[in-house]
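Quick start: read one record
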Amino acid sequence: MKSFADTKIAVIGSTMMDLTVYADILPAAGETRFGESFTTGFGGKGANQAVMAARTGATVTMITGIGNDGFGDESLQNFKNSQMDTSSVLRLDTHTGVAHIWVDGQGQNRISIVPGANFKLTPQDAIDEVSKLKNVSVLIAQCEIPQEVTLAAFRTAQELGITTILNPAPYQPLTDDLLELTDWLIPNEIEFAELDKAHRAPDTDEIIASLRDKGRTIVTLGSEGAALVTSDGKVKRFSAKKVSATDTTGAGDCFIGAFAAAIAAGANEESAVQFGIDCATKSVTRKGAQSSYPKIEEIDFSLIVK
């Protein structure tokens, strides 16, 4: 097993600026209510996953689009501050993506995103940037950039022998070609039900195991942990430590970034899942997405098994 410091992964995906309102009760349609607080923070599913992976000490290349605006400047600096490789961060002639987030008194969120530069990425951009990767073992993607861009990235990654991880969020129908190129598919419960042909929730091991004929699956289950479909088609469930949630924003991204870094370092998949859950559990006790992720000194590396 490699040390995390010798591990290289890449993320192709979205960069957003999160504009978050915290309110005990969120307003109904046509209603105005006072909120408790407002924050701006770095987000986007791709950026979140990349930052969490970088927190483990892994070297992370971020392939993304940002705008020629202040949010773009701040996002680029954030990547640099996270010790990430920014040579594939493309400045595009539009605005940086934004996410408007409302968090209620129970820590549950509602999110509306405006993609901006994220939707200006092209398949050729993906081919060019993935082709430049050196000694990268894992590539992560999500659904906040055009699907044809992710498809081009995964096709190139497969040619280079890079393991692919797809987080199908926010949900959209996935092409058979993209699923064929996906080594690890990691939906949450809502996305799982959308992907399942009969739109069943992941309530039983049998349902979870039946999602794919080929490739591997992990279902993240929020406070209940996660379920892994093992290489022999069985389902193994992993529990999460019970904590009082302050803000669940970005917890799934935290899991995926940590899991991907562990897999890339050579951890066995079961310990990688538990490692991801532990990092995500720490994150929900704090406000924000990236701002809530554990720093390297807070990460429990003893969970990793070769």
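The mean pLDDT is 95.
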